[in-house]
Specification:
Elements lengths: L1 E7 L3 E8 L5 E6 L2 E8 L3 E9 L4 E3 L17 E2 H9 L5 H10 L2 E2 L8 E4 L5 E5 L3 E5 L4 E4 L17 H12 L7 H10 L7 E8 L4 E6 L20
Parallel strand pairs: 7-8
Antiparallel strand pairs: 1-2, 1-12, 2-13, 3-4, 4-5, 5-6, 6-9, 9-10, 10-11, 13-14
Length: about 240
């Protein structure tokens, strides 16, 4: 279970709760970005989520229930590799948008991963393999939890996260134009999970090119929210 938020007010602010169970992860800060990596039994450590200094953000919530249409079938593009290519700056958001518009995008057998991608201008691309994609040009805000926007309530699952979606939406509808990092953390705190625990809460101030995070819902440990890179690294 995960929650993704992209907000365009005076600043572009992106928020991400990583909710996982029984998976090994680590946070790897580099000059080029801050990567949340998951240890895959076959591939090893994979940078699946996070931010880069170009201004891109990558989130990958699981879609519940899974959809067999997202299983690999014939020629197409793996959504995980597309996400990694954006995070590592091998592709741009617009290039991935072009791929989604012209080629099938699939996930892995038996599990439907969705893409939540954004760029320095606050544009957002949502991809649900096997179902579709949607591009939003600098929306006021966009939220994605773990249900398919194409299916809505036509299929249900305990981990869909519609409650989290509505909590975040209600808070964002009331948000001021000065929406900032602490405001985003307040939303992430409100939608954090314990059963499938929130292990990382990350906020990217895209305007300032600065990433903050805390682990294991330790909201009051300010020292664990760290500035990693700023505009000066790119100037």
């Amino acid at each position: 279970m995960c929650t993704s938020i992209v907000v365009n007010k005076k600043k572009t602010i992106v928020g991400w709760n990583l909710d996982i169970l029984d998976m090994e992860y680590r946070i790897r800060p580099e000059e080029e970005g801050v990567y949340i990596e998951v240890n895959d039994a076959i591939e090893g450590w994979m940078p699946l989520f996070g931010a880069n200094c170009r201004g891109d953000f990558v989130g990958m919530p699981t879609c519940w229930p899974s959809d067999k249409r997202s299983d690999p079938a014939g020629d197409g593009e793996n959504v995980i590799m597309l996400d990694i290519d954006l995070l590592l700056q091998k592709k741009t958001l617009q290039e991935i948008r072009d791929i989604a518009e012209t080629r099938p995008v699939y996930s892995i057998p038996g599990l439907t991963f969705m893409s939540v991608l954004s760029d320095a201008d606050g544009n957002v691309l949502h991809i649900v393999p096997g179902q579709g994609h949607q591009y939003y040009e600098k929306p006021e805000y966009k939220i994605l939890t773990n249900f398919s926007p194409y299916k809505q309530d036509s299929e249900t699952h305990p981990w869909m996260g519609r409650d989290r979606y509505h909590i975040a939406e209600e808070m964002l509808q009331k948000a001021s134009d000065n929406f900032d990092v602490e405001d985003c953390f307040n939303i992430l705190k409100a939608v954090s999970q314990e059963i499938c625990p929130t292990v990382v809460s990350m906020v990217y101030d895209v305007t300032e090119r600065t990433v903050y995070w805390c682990e294991d819902r330790n909201w009051d440990e300010k020292a664990r929210r760290r500035k990693i890179f700023g505009r000066s690294l790119r100037e």
